[in-house]
């Protein structure tokens, strides 16, 4: 057999910059990225910025920022659709010259009358332009350019996710390619951009499935290569309804603010509608090796915040301690009202193995670290205050003496000293550990209390206990 002549795989992600990177868009970008990398192809980015009125300032930068945070690096320069309007119009005029499109002088009133008649007959509106087979329109009047779409037969798309989907050509009307002011429509721009970018596979949300038939009619009229289509079901909220702002976090950057690690969000999004056997924790390298369109399900996936929390906890525990320190130092500074010095950063690094074992997100990790940097006497929250009420204060005093008598200030030695005390006075270990935790951290929750003692050191630990006993 000779070498394969199949074209290089090229995918694209084409968001509209309307404010933020939607979580569904982030998953679409991920699927396109992984498919391209799996096949040794290219992943390209196109910003569909033709709707200038709906583009808030900084929206494009927000998309770049979110994709960068997720590590979804595109190949080459990003393409901006608005800047290519002249090229889009050029293609429409070429099609017009070949007879694949025509000038239409229908007035807004005629279009409105047609819609009203269809509504009265309770039928879908199918435009039938009287100008489709005429060229004697008024030269001094504005016109649109319409595609001369086929009216007979049907079109079947072999969709890689949805399977074969067929639409009768009679259901598709002659869509507008150029508006009366000469500007290109979205449908034209998408087809021209995909062709010029060499896109071989169009992987996008299934809300674009209907568009595919109209775009395919234009592609065929132009005689261009047809892409492979894969329309992925949308993400739904936990209640099964289409994901919206009422469900909470819908923007990718919101998850960053929630303290989610980018690799955790990537793993979670990958498993939203795609699977590889029973694998739950999937690295970027494994995802590139395994990803295929056959693994994408046809049913909409539901957001599950608890599952994301679980996956994020796994990645926190696996993440390098120094990286976690870099990530949470700004969060600690914001909560603590001051920046950490070098010795405090070193203390945080030493404490990280214990701290990260219990945290579900970076914000929680930062909050759990605050006790390390409080100045004496440390403040107590309401639950901690209750834990130090008599008779707990007497137990704290006895624990202080037992700790002070220990020559070895290490977690195991301190635990042995407190266990011996508990057995001697006939109480459970927790009865002593809880007031100790309150005095040392100001909270009712913390890493293991003997690890806290070890990390704080002898002088700081005994000092904090003495503050509360006074």
Element layout with pairings:
Layout: E1 10-13, H1 23-38, E2 42-47, H2 59-70, E3 79-80, H3 85-98, E4 101-104, H4 108-120, E5 144-147, E6 154-159, E7 163-168, E8 176-178, H5 186-196, E9 201-205, H6 209-222, E10 228-232, E11 235-236, H7 252-257, H8 262-270, H9 284-290, E12 301-302, H10 305-318, H11 321-336, H12 342-356, H13 362-369, H14 382-387, H15 392-404, H16 411-425, H17 429-441, H18 449-456, H19 458-469
Parallel strand pairs: 1-2, 2-3, 9-10, 11-12
Antiparallel strand pairs: 4-5, 5-8, 6-7
Helix pairs in contact: 1-9, 3-5, 5-6, 8-10, 11-12, 11-13, 12-18, 15-16, 15-17, 15-19, 16-17, 16-18
Any overview of this molecule?
This is Glutamate--tRNA ligase. The protein has 19 helices and twelve strands. It is mainly alpha-helical. It has four domains: 10-77 and 235-309, HUPs (Rossmann fold), CATH 3.40.50; 82-187, Glutamyl-tRNA Synthetase, Domain 3 (Glutamyl-tRNA Synthetase, domain 3), CATH 3.90.800; 319-373; 382-469, Arc Repressor Mutant, subunit A, CATH 1.10.10. Strand 9, helix 6 and strand 10 (228-232) form a beta-alpha-beta unit. It starts with 9 loop residues before the first strand and ends with a helix. The model has no long low-confidence stretch (mean pLDDT 93).
How many domain units?
A: 4
Uncertain segments:
none
Name of the CATH first level of the largest domain: Alpha Beta
Per CATH, the superfamily of the largest domain is HUPs
Q: Outline the biggest β-sheet.
A: 3 strands, parallel
In terms of DSSP E residues, the strand content is: 5-15%
Number of strands: 12
CATH topology of the largest domain: Rossmann fold
Side-by-side strand order of the widest sheet: 1-2-3
Just name the CATH architecture of the largest domain: 3-Layer(aba) Sandwich
Sum up the overall morphology in one term. elongated
Total count of helical runs of at least 4 residues: 19
pLDDT average, as an integer?
Answer: 93
Structural class: mainly alpha
Termini separation (Å)?
87 Å
Helix content: 40-55%
Radius of gyration, whole Å = 32 Å
Protein name: Glutamate--tRNA ligase
Motif ('KMSKS' region): 242-246
Enzyme class: ligase
Motif ('HIGH' region): 15-25
